Amino acid sequence: MNWKTTIRRIKRLGKLTDAGIAKKVRTSQQHINRLRMGQTKSPNWELGDRLIGLEKEVRNKPPVKPVSK
Predict the structure, then answer these.
(1) What confidence tier does 61 reach under pLDDT thresholds 50, 70, 90?
(2) Which one, 2, 21, 22, 52, has the greatest CB density within 10 A?
(3) What sign has the CA pseudo-torsion 1, 17, 35, 46?
(4) In 3-state terms, the chain is what percent helix, strand and coil (to 5)?
């Protein structure tokens, strides 16, 4: 699994920061940053599973429509 790509996709589709992703998957912002930068090659099984779940969640989220006045 390419965690760099997974995290970038979550950021783009979910409009989340590293800190926002970290909060949702219950880890530190630094850990997410190290995975995204390739400094850490892979997370432990539990974190990897939560990241995959978050990616599925943001992929299936319907796009936000602008509020019309």
Answers:
(1) confident
(2) 21
(3) negative
(4) 65, 0, 35
